[in-house]
Amino acid sequence: MTSYRIKRHRQRRHGANHFALIPFIDMMTILVVFLLAHTAEVDILPNTKNISIPQSLSDRKPSAAVVVMITKDSVYVDGELVGSVSAVAANQGPFFAPLKAALMAQNNRSLQQTDIAKREVTIMGDKSTPYSLLKKIMLTCSEAEYGKVSFAVVERERAAT
């Protein structure tokens, strides 16, 4: 009689219904993790307090690209200092050689994009940056074999229609 009670107790405690829920819970956990990982919206551009980015309406989200950042007194490529704004402005040529060298070094690091037309660079500059400086930086980007040159902007809220 004792063995029958023990056997019945073990069946109730370790029944088949308990084990049927575990794969379902595991599957739901994996699904939640997958959805969280693949639906997160993240900004690709670095956020800086030194730059007041202009506002614009944009339909496209930024893609991963080399970032040229222009502060009030310095020029950076992916966070590395390239030169000062005064040196870029004082340069007599159509492009700025240190910036071109830094952009070409970025090309050499990322060999996955061999098509020049698909190479992207994003210029992130203060809204008070003079156009002559932006023009020189854009020419330098195209001279460094970047086919797509974009400007970073803050998306302005659209009016409800």
* Helix run count: 5
Elements, N to C (H/E): HHEEEEHHEHEE
- The residue ranges in which pLDDT falls below 50 over 5 or more consecutive positions are none
Q: How large is the share of residues in beta strands?
A: 15-25%
Number of folding domains?
2
Q: What is the strand arrangement across the widest sheet?
A: 4-3-2-5-6
Globally, the shape reads: elongated
Q: Distance N terminus to C terminus?
A: 78 Å
Kindly identify the CATH topology of the largest domain.
Nucleotidyltransferase, domain 5
How many strand segments? 7
Share of helical residues: 40-55%
What characterizes the major β-sheet?
Answer: 5 strands, mixed
CATH hierarchy: architecture of the largest domain = 2-Layer Sandwich
Mean pLDDT: 75
Question: What class, by secondary structure content?
Answer: alpha/beta
Radius of gyration: 28 Å
> Given this structure, which CATH class of the largest domain is correct?
Alpha Beta
Determine the oligomeric state from the structure.
Answer: single chain
Short description:
The protein has 161 residues and is of the alpha/beta class.
Walkthrough of the structure:
The chain has five helices and seven strands; from the N terminus they run ααββββααβαββ. It is of the alpha/beta class. The protein has two domains: 2-39; 55-155, 2-Layer Sandwich (Nucleotidyltransferase, domain 5). The strands form two sheets. The protein has a five-stranded mixed beta sheet with strand order 4-3-2-5-6. A two-stranded parallel ribbon has the order 1-7. Strand 3 (74-77) and strand 4 (80-84) form a beta hairpin. It is elongated, with a radius of gyration of 28 Å. The termini are far apart. The mean pLDDT is 75.
